[in-house]
Amino acid sequence: MGPGGNSFGDILSGLDDSFLTGPDTSGLEQVSTGDALAAFADHEKEGLCHTVWTFMTPFIGGVCNCDRSDCMAMKSTVVHDVKVMFRAEYVAEVNRDVCTGCRACMRVCQFGALAYSAADQKAVVDQTACYGCGICRSACPHDAMGLRPRAEVPATASLW
Q1: Across 96-103, average pLDDT
Q2: What CATH architecture applies to the domain 32-152?
Q3: Domain residue spans in the chain?
Q4: Contact of 85 with 74, CB cutoff 8 Å
């Protein structure tokens, strides 16, 4: 059984001919790849976290750009510990040689995974709290934030 109790056979039996050609999108607004990427970049500057929602995996039901104050799923997961959202396959890390301690990354972290070390005057990542969204990387004016595969970090390899 897969997540939600559906077996692979159940998923396959529920497919119709539109699986091969895609759903009927006539009458829906279409956005070019360039416009979509520009919108994502703008959302990142605002500190919004991108999430991908699946309703019957592997089918994408929606892409959302949220913050904790407006998103019930994010608030449920982070504030109330009700696991509605899952972590990405990456975790943030700081390049300490490049970090200037400006704290721009801290201002956009929706998950409370970033702190400031007064002793080192650098940002610090609590990788066990990190959801791997990468918004901190977008906010850093010095390119000091990076993403590392979650599986390479022993403390986070099994946290999803």
Answers
A1: 97
A2: 2-Layer Sandwich (3.30)
A3: 32-152
A4: yes
pTM: predicted TM-score of the whole model, two decimal places: 0.72
Phi/psi-derived region of residue 34, left when phi > 0, alpha when psi is between -120 and 50, beta in every other case: alpha
Residue 117 has pLDDT above 70, yes or no: yes
Cα end-to-end distance, the chain, whole Å: 19
Residues in the chain: 160
Q: Give just the sign of the alpha carbon dihedral 144, 147, 151, 156.
A: positive
81 DSSP 8-state letter: -
Q: Say if residue 65 is exposed, middle or buried (CB neighbours under 10 Å; 0-12, 13-18, 19+).
A: middle
Tens-digit pLDDT profile for residues 16-45: 776 677 667 788 788 888 998 899 889 888
